[in-house]
Amino acid sequence: MKYYFIAGEASGDLHASHLMAALHRRDPEAEFRFVGGDLMEAQGGTLVRHYRELAYMGILPVLRHLPSILSGMRKTKRDIRQWKPQVVILVDYPGFNLSIAKFVRKQLPTTAIFYYIPPKIWAWKEWRISSLRRDTDLLLSILPFEIEYYHRRHQFKQITYVGNPTLDEVRAYEAQHHEDFAHFIEENGLPNRPIIALLAGSRRQEIKDNLGRMIEAAQPWAEKYQLVVAGAPGIEPEFYGQWTKEMPVTVLYGKTYPILQHATAALVTSGTATLETALFRVPQVVCYYIGWGKFISFMRRLVLKIPYISLVNLVAGREVVPELVADGMTVEEVRRHLRSILPNGHRREQMLEAYELVIERLGQPGAPNHAAEIIAP
Question: Above 60 in pLDDT, residue 65?
């Protein structure tokens, strides 16, 4: 069967590559064409366009590259129409993918359209439900709470939970890596002190807004603990050096999971990293500073339709980890919450116990396999 994938960023490339591998195990004759990245290309098939040509975040970058984005969309639509796949699989990236879904539904009405990791309309842009209802056959959700939301609020039944791929990735890592702390610090030239992990995001603006405040908040523990930053791909050491230079801070690249495996506590920006941190059972404080903090906090109450921003709290359905957002993310507040999750802190054991509920709600590993069973029965 012919499968056309569209993944518009690095995380989509990762998740789509695992789904491609699962599909190929079920369908040895599978043919793939895709917009994606290097991980997908390693699975075989034809890379039509790299996501780097399309992945722009923020109003100004999108406007600046709008001609390129629109050209990429036109070429992708033309390629899909010419290749005539039996299945189109959209992976996250809703602004681009919803337009593709509408086109495919109109031009190739017999083609099945699956949305793996659907848009987070429960957070914002709820009006996208009409496009999803009209232009997709099935949403393959990776967040268990989405099912009830779609059913209850929109009477939308074209959705099923397949499991969470982050659970698969963490479990696969743990099964293959058993190095002890002594080996980890020796391998990376670190001092023999416990680790406070700093996961300040993958984008420059996130790092700029959060890392300096994280470091300052953790400073009182710098003699007893070492501060280790999980370096993001594509962010050069010089950029981190603006905040880490002449500070007792180490930046390690490509070591997010090993850092979490050996961390005592973590300061984490929102996103998948909060879930990864919970799966490694590391107590955390969610830190997401944004400029114009009071205005953003006000708009958040008006625009966001959810009480939390971290996946940990959303999956649990209650506050498991503290969320310090916009003007609420101050050095003093981060420091106060960090103290509470370090050993002997009053929230540490309570948080670790609540993580077990989150892990239970995520279910069993195997998200790509479950999705593949539905797509290629």
Answer: no
* Residue ranges of E strands in the chain: 2-7, 31-36, 46-50, 87-91, 112-116, 138-141, 159-161, 195-199, 226-231, 249-253, 263-268, 284-288, 323-325
Residue 23 and residue 36 in contact, taking contact as beta carbons nearer than 8 Å: no
Residue with tokens 């339709």: 305
DSSP H or E stretch at residue 302: helix 293-303
2-161 and 169-362 share one fold: yes
CATH number 3.40.50.2000 given to 169-362: yes
Identify the bridge partners of residue 91 per DSSP, sorted by sequence position. Answer: 7, 116
pLDDT at 337 over 60: yes
Query: Could you tell me which residues come within 8 angstroms of residue 118 by beta carbon, excluding any fewer than 6 positions away?
Result: 94, 132, 136, 139, 140, 141, 146, 159
Q: Which of 138-152, 181-195, 283-297, 361-375 has the lowest mean pLDDT?
A: 283-297
Options 3.40.50.2300, 3.40.50.2000, 3.40.50.720, 3.40.640.10; CATH of 2-161? 3.40.50.2000
- Are the C-beta atoms of residues 7 and 39 closer than 8 Å to each other? no
Residue showing tokens 């050096």: 241
| β pairing state of 284-288 and 323-325 | parallel
The DSSP symbol for 234 reads T
Amino acid found at 213: R
User: Could you give the CA distance from residue 267 to residue 160 in angstroms, rounded to a whole number?
Assistant: 32
pTM for the full model? Answer: 0.87
Q: How far apart are CA 196 and CA 377, in angstroms?
A: 45
Question: Tens digit of pLDDT for each residue in 232-264?
Answer: 988 999 999 999 988 889 999 999 999 999 999
Give the type of residue at 151. Answer: H
Ordered by start, the domain boundaries in the chain are 2-161, 169-362
Distance of CA 267 to the CA centre of its chain: 16
